[in-house]
Amino acid sequence: VQPVIFDMSLEVLGDIAVRRVKASMEQQGIPYAQVSYKHTGSDKIPYDDVFSISATVEDAQMEKAAGIIAGVMESIDNEGVSPDEYLLAETSFLGSLKRQADSPVTGNDALADKCISAYLYNSSLALPKQVYAFHKSRNLPDTMRCRLFNGVAAALLYPLDTFLADSISVSAEPADTSVF
Known about the structure:
Blueprint: H1 2-27, E1 32-40, E2 50-58, H2 62-79, H3 83-101, H4 108-121, H5 128-137, H6 142-157, H7 160-167, E3 168-173
Parallel strand pairs: 2-3
Antiparallel strand pairs: 1-2
Helix pairs in contact: 1-2, 1-3, 2-6, 3-5
């Protein structure tokens, strides 16, 4: 169960962080081409999970964008997220997981890689359909799930300075490129 909750927590954390970073950049008038997160689990790579948040902005805005990302992550670490914010991200995660669960089962080589990863990195052996069924069967109130998530997020982000140094990426785009 632990790897399944860990994976969900990183996906929800990424979704919430991206929403907050975009809102902060818009509020401060910083145009961006892209804000995204990436979580690559140890079931897909031959080492520990990798999590990063990135933004693509104009050269002149790179330092401000990095500061916004750091501020957002610090806010999540210190204050947590609201139940509404958590539920929005969890719903998005479950929708994505449902699409994966409805996909065809992968071949034997992918299943062998999953077994190796589970042995080496404690990743989950469960197939997307099983993970989706597990999440749908949980019978905890929304506020309890949010409180548990906030505890996991704080643990994942600690120590924050190390997390930020390893997980923030800001890249520049040419000034004449359209941004949204």
